[in-house]
Structures are given as structure tokens and as C-alpha cells.
Amino acid sequence: MSAADNRPEPWHAALHRLQREGRPHVLATQVTSAGSTPREPGARMVITADAVYDTLGGGTFEWQTIEAARGRLAGVDGRVEAGMRLEAFSLGGRSGQCCGGFVNVLLEVFPGSAATLAIFGAGHVGQALVRLAAPLPWRLLWHDSREGAFPEWAAETPRLECRPAPDPAAAVAALPPGAHALVLTHDHAEDRALVDALLARGDTASLGLIGSRSKWASFRRRLGEAGHDEAALARVRCPIGTAAGGTGGDKTPYAIALAAVAELLPLMGDEARPEQRGLDPAKLRAALGDPLRDDPHAPA
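C-alpha cells predicted for Xanthine dehydrogenase accessory protein XdhC:
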């Protein structure tokens, strides 16, 4: 291993990687400074729930910046919301540092992928699904119980995480809350075990199963015998894609995947954005100065 391999990841590399992976993070940028400060405006660091990349100079001020960023990442009821916030630090007051300067730091929160789609099965339909879903702002968790099932191109697909899954129950237990799930493995018994585990978990946002109506009739009866009530069973979409108009009789993998993704779009869509986004203009002018007020040539 070379010495370069041991160097910490700089903020710009971490930012690129985290955005590509669709993971929540905060970009902290020092935008103003007055007096003696550890770094100058333009210094940046990237913060996640469990890691920090680069530095704004260290000390209590940096620790407070990290705490403020992680407070934003914690969100409300576990939901991270995108947005910006300006944090002001009096280094001799709020931060208790002897340099005594004053710093404003802009925190930009990136909540990561809007939704998570768990795909069980890396066969022809699964591969077509991943290719169709890759350009969308979803985090993709791809599972298969077979060794060597994932294609080589999967390693280069943004926001995709391949998860070998020999144990269906363990694979389902590892999903994040509120994930959408599609079950389309190579084996009917494995499909049924996955649907059973997903229904038992009870917190999936949606659940689709590949197959015919006769397959679902058989599954429905056996899942009912296993203790799942009618309300739970009614949440399973089988065949997948019918809510989007189906495939028109085309049963090729691409057609099935296309109908399934079209069906998911309204289920996984973003909530409406608020009218006011970004920083409050009055607070921004107060922190950075009003360009009209400070321009001697501006009209009174």
C-alpha cells in the first residue's frame, strides 16, 4: 500500500462519493471570518452521522459545527430534510477559544436518496429493474441468495448496494424502515419466505411480488395460514406492474421491469417542496451584508 492510500479522504472526494451513493451528509463551508480565526472563508468539511472529512481548523468551534450538522442529520422523527442554515460562532464567546475571532458557517444538508427500493432477485427482470431505476434518485439495495449472481456492471452503478442474501429473514431484518420491496427471485419457496418476513416486519412502504394471479392465490392461502391477516395480505401487489397498466401481454424482462418501475413512481415520489427554500433572505443580508446598502453608488 502506498503512502497516498493512507491519506484521509478530502472533502471534495467525500462529497462526490456520498452524493453518488445517495447517503445523508452535510457540507459545512466557512463563509465569513473576522479577527483571528483557524481557517479562512472557503474552508470546507463534510459531515455524516459517523464520520468527518477535512477540517475547519479544529477546536471547540469545529466540534460545535459537527454537532450542529449532526443535529440537522437527525431530522424530525428520523426524516432528514434538505436545506441550508447559517451558524454564527464567536470564537471567544460561544466556542471559548482564545483566538477570539468571529465566523459564519453555512451548513448545507443533503438528505440522500429520497426513497429506498429493495430488490430481491438478480435474474433477468431484476437486472432490467436496476438499469431502469439507476437514473432515479433512489437508493437501491439488491439481494440474491446465489453466489456470483450480480453482474460486473453493478459495481459502477450509483446508489446501488449489492447484498448477498443466503438467509431471507436476515436480509429483510437488515432493511431500513420504510423501504419499498420487490420480490422476484429464481425460487418460489424463497419468494414466499421473503414475503412472509416482509409482512411480519410490517414497516415496508410497499411490497410487490412477481408472478401470476394463480401464484398469488397459492401464496395468499399459505401466508394466511401462517397468521397474516387480510389487511396485511391486501398490501401485496401481484402481479407487479398492473397498477401502471401492465405490459400489454409482453412478458419480456424489460417490459415487466418497465411496468414495475412505472407503478413505483407515484409510490416513491417526493413530497411537495415548500415555497420558501434555502436561507431566509433577511438573515442572509444581516450576516453577509446588504450589497445595495454597502454600495455608495446605490440609490438611497
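The longest helix spans residues 59-74.
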